[in-house]
Amino acid sequence: MGANESVAAIGVFDSGLGGLTVARALMQRLPAESLIYVGDSARVPYGPKSPDTVRRYALQIGQWLLDQQVKCIVVACNTATAHALPLLQAELPVPVIGVIQPGARAAVRATTNGPIGVIGTAGTVASGAYTQAIHDVANRPLDVHAVACPLFVPLVEEGWTEHPATRLIAHQYLQPLRQLQVDAVVLGCTHYPLLRDVIAAEMGDGVTLIDSAAETAVEVATVLTATNRLAAPETVPSHRFVASDAPKHFLELGSRFLGQSLGNVEHHVFT
Ligand code: DGL
Known about the structure:
Blueprint: H1 4-7, E1 10-14, H2 20-29, E2 35-39, H3 51-67, E3 72-75, H4 78-91, E4 96-97, H5 100-110, E5 116-120, H6 122-127, H7 129-137, E6 144-148, H8 152-157, H9 164-179, E7 184-188, H10 196-203, E8 208-211, H11 212-226, E9 240-243, H12 247-258, E10 266-267
Parallel strand pairs: 1-2, 1-3, 2-9, 3-4, 5-6, 5-7, 7-8, 9-10
The structure holds D-glutamic acid.
D-glutamic acid binds at residues 14-16, 18, 44-47, 77-79, 121, 124, 153, 189-191.
């Protein structure tokens, strides 16, 4: 590994805007690191798409990020992690980090004795990836109940994070988890941290909500340290944001997810 790998950027990708919540956590945890963020706005959402399709998209973006000389790749999308992480790790010659393993670890730490709830897209829930990861991490038997919440993504994209309709839908989706008296819920989708207040109100006190983003940033820091790829602390980072469609729209809505302006969004079509 050469010296230039420490100054290279971290590649981050998601199906669209939501992964900016992960970029935000990375910027907080690793302020000297530069990011190249790809939002696949032309093909969002990944949640209802077949595993093969999501794998194809993920590999295209991963290969493009490699062409940009990134030193590692963060799969910020839960659905892409669920379907494509092993493929990306096998095919790409840099560390590839997903959001599911870190989220699973945090859930196992947070729970007393289960059950653990997981909420995500239809694809993430159908894959069983969180349930598997939690069972792999836990050294004790834990019940895991995963619930798909497909309407949450469009509600967040619409900016309806406090809307009465969102509260009604959350009430309906989360009912099984309330009945099971889960003590931790994994927010297993990029968009759900923006619904934290609504979800917390539905689940009530005593239920810990797990945001995979912060946990993933910790994991990225660990991997960069272990592989001697960390940027020097005095480095002034520069970030690039790339959207596969409607970059102006991406720029306008992105700040809601990133917590600050994106400054500029480039356009790139993945084929
Ligand atoms: N980024 C996706 C995820 O975290 C949510 C949006 C989508 O369905 O593409 O699963």
